[in-house]
Amino acid sequence: MIGKLSGRIDYKATDHVLIDVRGVGYIVYCSDRTLASLPPVGQACALFTDLVVREDLMQLFGFQTLVEKEWHRLLMSVQGVGAKAALAIQGTLGADGVSRAIALGDWNAVKAAKGIGPKIAQRVVLDLKDKAPSVMAMGGTVAEATGDAMAEADVIEPISMAAPPSSAQADALSALGNLGYGPSDAAAAVAQAAGEDPQAETPALIRAALKLLAPKG
């Protein structure tokens, strides 16, 4: 399994890039979003990759983060979603957008991707809604893998409570922090969601908190 490539960009096309790794050229298919973020031809780049093997075909797909790679794998697990369709969804929404759409059950957002109809979009949301929290909580793993240090502003501070937050609340806070929400806003939303449903598990808490944090009107 080829999990990551680091090399020089030799060529860019509309849906793939050719990366020279010590004299060996690898064709890597990427989303529009990833292609637009890559440096110009001739410069160095690094991509996490997923090797998709079919009976008569082997293709490499490239991603800037491990979260994107994991979403690609999960999206392909949905019946009717192939590798190119999974790329299209992430290219339209981004990894954070996919997380929000699935956590909130917003299949219309998924349907905005090219080639994705309403039935497939609904199936994506239904099949992956319980898996979204684990992917959303991967931020720390990604930072370690890419060598990026988390900014102090991104670190979720402990909540002042009479009792420590439950495991579900802690996981929900971590997921919201990885999506870019501030510690105080995330804590308030999770606390309110937990107060309304004390028995809620992590996926339900995240969905409820995201609804509370969503712009009004």
Short précis:
Residues 166-217 are annotated as: Domain III. The chain is an alpha+beta fold and 217 residues long. Helix content is 49%, strand content 18%.
Structure, explained:
GO terms for molecular function: ATP binding; four-way junction DNA binding; four-way junction helicase activity. Residues 168-214 form the Holliday junction DNA helicase RuvA C-terminal domain. The structure is a single chain. By secondary structure, the protein is of the alpha+beta class. The chain folds into 3 domains: 4-63, Nucleic acid-binding proteins (OB fold (Dihydrolipoamide Acetyltransferase, E2P), Beta Barrel), CATH 2.40.50; 66-135, DNA polymerase, domain 1 (Orthogonal Bundle), CATH 1.10.150; 149-212. It is 49% helix and 18% strand. It contains 10 helices and 5 strands, in the order E-E-E-H-E-E-H-H-H-H-H-H-H-H-H. The chain has helices at residues 32-37, 66-76, 83-104, 107-111, 118-128, 132-136, 139-146, 167-178, 183-196, 202-213, and strands at 4-12, 16-21, 24-29, 44-54, 57-63. The protein has a 5-stranded mixed barrel. The longest helix is centred in the middle third of the chain and has 22 residues, at 83-104. The radius of gyration is 19 Å and the shape is elongated.
